[in-house]
Specification:
Helix content: over 70%
Shape: globular
Structural class: mainly alpha
Strand content: under 5%
Distance between the termini: 33 Å
Number of strands: 0
Length: 326
């Protein structure tokens, strides 16, 4: 795996250097914090630097104009969701890509379609899903995850939410636009563009660093201290409101899809309906307080609320449909 070396480094620091006991709450929380901090900050650096290079050759306005002129009939949302499937990132790791997409002039709804699908459906989760629940349920889950991202993206785009991006993001976009126009007018070489791209990358990193670390710290505490069986009593098949309750109660937790799937298997084995368990999983993976903390740098509270509400509604509907179909 791409990030195995980071996990090995985190294990060495926590268990060998600090000599913490494996399985202890503090050890799990700290291990999670070290691993995700290094991984996400590396992703932020690489993605923003790469998007800076792309933006210097493909101006924001040209990308926007192309997407607005071309009648893609919603295909762009589906493509963003499918791209999310092949990027095996958790929700917090997807946020750097979200910043890069917005900075690159990609419409907000299309960007949201990626942000929603990426943590829900990836090759690791698909492999585990097949092993735990079989091919039929896996296919239904994958299709529902892609549709969830696509439909949510379309809804969010229709709401025209760009004005709710934070002033920091709008300033980043404005600076990027001015510099790109300057590059075009002056015919600047790639080598001459690099200092600006580097400075822009450092500026973005500096702007989001506190939010990244605080978000991951919250996720680490939840990962280390919230017991796995804490929510089972609220998800029984006799509870008509089990699906929305499962979705909402999942928000304080934080795991990626591969981490929460074994928990879903345990829930199902204890008699909890599959749709309710999957809604819980989608809530854990697609909606989390650490993700909200990271998004706070790029979205106003109103936009975060609208985003989370839309995704929650789609997850709840998916959970009920799963319970009916399966």
């Amino acid at each position: 795996m791409m990030f195995d070396w980071i996990q090995q480094l985190a294990d060495w620091l926590v268990f060998d250097v600090l000599n913490l006991k494996e399985g202890a709450h503090l050890a799990n929380a700290l291990n999670f914090f070290i691993y995700d901090s290094i991984k996400i900050l590396l992703l932020v650096f690489v993605i923003i630097f790469f998007m800076g290079i792309i933006n210097s050759y493909f101006p924001v306005e040209k990308v926007r104009n192309y997407l607005s002129r071309k009648k893609l009939y919603g295909f762009e949302y589906l493509m963003a969701s499918l791209f999310g499937v092949v990027t095996p990132f958790c929700s917090c790791s997807s946020v750097p890509l979200f910043i890069g997409f917005v900075k690159g002039g990609i419409p907000l709804g299309v960007t949201f379609a990626f942000l929603i699908t990426s943590p829900l459906v990836n090759e690791v989760a698909i492999g585990l899903f097949i092993g735990l629940f079989g091919l039929k349920i896996t296919i239904i889950y994958v299709i529902s995850g892609i549709l969830l991202g696509t439909i949510s993206g379309i809804i969010l785009q229709k709401l025209k939410l760009e004005k709710y991006l934070t002033p920091w993001v709008q300033q980043v976009l404005e600076n990027s636009k001015h510099e790109t126009e300057k590059f075009e007018l002056e015919g600047t070489s790639f080598k001459a563009k690099l200092p600006f791209i580097w400075n822009e990358t450092k500026s973005v990193l500096k702007g989001i660093l506190p939010y990244v670390l605080i978000g991951i710290a919250i996720g680490g505490l939840m990962h280390g201290y919230i017991p796995e069986g804490f929510f089972e009593q609220y998800m029984s098949k006799d509870n008509l409101f089990a699906v929305p309750l499962a979705t909402i109660m999942a928000v304080p937790m934080y795991m990626n899809a591969s981490g929460v799937l074994p928990v879903v298997q345990v829930l199902v084995s204890k008699g909890i309906p599959l749709g309710t368990a999957i809604a819980f999983m989608m809530g854990v993976v697609g909606l989390s307080l650490p993700e909200a903390m990271l998004l706070k740098k790029v979205m106003t509270l109103k936009l975060i609320f609208i985003f989370f509400s839309t995704v929650t509604l789609c997850i709840v509907i998916s959970g009920y449909l799963f319970n009916i179909i399966l």
